[in-house]
Please model this.
Amino acid sequence: MDLNIALEQRQAIAEIKYLPAVSIILPFQPVITSKSQLACRLKLIIGKIERELVKLYSVEKAMPLIIKLKIIIRNLNYNSPTKSIAVFVSPVMEKVYYLEFEVEEKIAIDESFKIRDFVFNKKQTIQYLVMVLSDEHSKMYVGNCSKLTIIKSNISTNAKSYENNLGEVSADFIHNSNPKAVLLNEFLHQMDQGLSIILTAYALPVFITGAKKVLEQFKKITTNERNIVQFIEGSYHQVKEEEIQNVIFPYEFDWKKVKQKYLLNQIEKAKEKNKLAIGINQVWSAAIQNKGKLLIMETEYATSQPLNRKDLFFKMDFLFGIPFYIKDEVDEIIEKVLESEGYVEFVEQATLKEYDHIVLIENYQ
Model:
């Protein structure tokens, strides 16, 4: 869109007191839903919007927007492997986002648009990994609110069949000459390496369960401490999945707290790898270079002034004083991160106080 518009044209548009604007945030998964079903759903939505616009505005004002909206919907990419779309249309701007996350449906007319709106509309999914450890067995599950699914099971190949009380083993396993302790240490190292591999496919919070002595040793040797949100004492390697789920349920119930702890751990992990941009200036610089993997910010964080970067792409709606625009540089950063296939998460106020309220985890292997 050409923003180098003559001053006369800007003034003419700025004189328009009020114009219609439409926002559509919608689940959109062509991979699992047929094109005909999606098209039918979109047709119903457009019909509803058209009726509302005609009620609120004269035909002269409503019809150009309706026509523009129908063209956008007709040209949607049904080959996109996305989960949702966000469509924003006003008389002077139009934007379509293909999103990698699921959203709650939202349709709005004449509400100010902020990029963060559809991030707030993201469905909050509860998903995690559970590693069940014993001295010679390990099971790995991927879980959600409804079920646990086993994805890996291991038995120590070095250990002979033995049944003992781990209370006989010293707390300092590494320096203990007890052969059982040595075998346990080797086994846990193998399980930690396996966890590292699984985390490349499932970037999720991890719960570890096991006897106290096993957990104490695993804490010493693990390289995945930043992904582990809770160690849970107990012997669950011979129980049914339903019993393990009952143990995890309190954490599901307070998932917001679990997720926040996980995100803070990811920040520390990125900081250790020197892959963390801190504060609005560093985050902006990383975002415009398409380095953003995960943007984390406090819920109400915003800058007090509009963007003033010299290379800024100003939105026309902002220039013309129309209330349907990206408000500040935080929203612009969110847009850039999403366009580079990154993700955005929010945490509670003051959580990131020591990081100037906003961070960006950069892409790294």
